[in-house]
Amino acid sequence: MSDYHPPNTPLDILHDDHELLVVNKPAGLLSVPGKGADLADCLLSRVQEAFPTALLVHRLDRDTSGVMVFGLSPHAQRHLGLQFEKRQVKKTYVARVLGELSPKTGTVDLPIAVDWPNRPRQKVCHETGRGAVTEWRVLRQGDGESRVRLMPRTGRSHQLRVHMLSLGHPILGDPLYATGKARDYPRLMLHSEELRLRHPDGGAGVKFRAKAPF
User: What does pTM read for this prediction?
Assistant: First the structure.
């Protein structure tokens, strides 16, 4: 039996035009299909039902919610893909983490590699890891947790989750990296709040936001 039970919610479209589609992904829904028929339901397939020309540009983890952009033409997909590749897209996330982070702002610069025996987990690894940088800022604290804004400067798999764990402040509700009471939440408390990028038609700067649901 699959433990994949994606939310059956309608598409939350933040923006669409002739080149771009921006959607607010719900937590618990894969960005792209997994292996096997039971993992076929994903944001990409739902989007393509409504927008048949939609093409994947980037991904969010299944348990992460928030802003995702799709190209509606091969040109738009290439244009956006290059922006992600060259780290020109400015990404902002909101998370709730265990404990009170100190200082109130900082940067994690730790390389990340696959933790092969424990896949899909990732780990900090100075031998084989690829460079990964995350800036953080505390928004508020209390009740044994911190609400933080996270600005990844790279796009490694599970980067924010591993980097927060490396500080001793795992993201609440994380099924892979949190333990004990920190894990006991209805969802991963991580949300892609904002993307800033250049529009594929003309290159003007655009910004898309979706408020965190937690």
Answer: 0.96
Say how far apart CA 87 and CA 28 lie, in whole Å.
Answer: 26
Distances (CA, A) of 166 to 7, 81, 109, 124, 199: 30, 29, 10, 8, 35
Q: What phi and psi values does residue 91 have, to the nearest 5 degrees?
A: -110, 135
Tell me what percent of the chain is helix, strand and coil, each rounded to the nearest 5: 20, 35, 50
Q: What residues in the chain have per-residue pLDDT under 70? A: 1-2
User: What confidence tens digit (pLDDT) does each residue in 108-125 have?
Assistant: 999 999 999 999 999 999
What does DSSP assign to residue 36? Answer: S
Residue 170 DSSP class: P
Active site residue 109: no
Say which DSSP state 2 is in.
-
The catalytically annotated residue of 12, 61, 63, 201 is 61
* CA angle (113 as vertex; 94, 38 as ends), nearest 5: 70
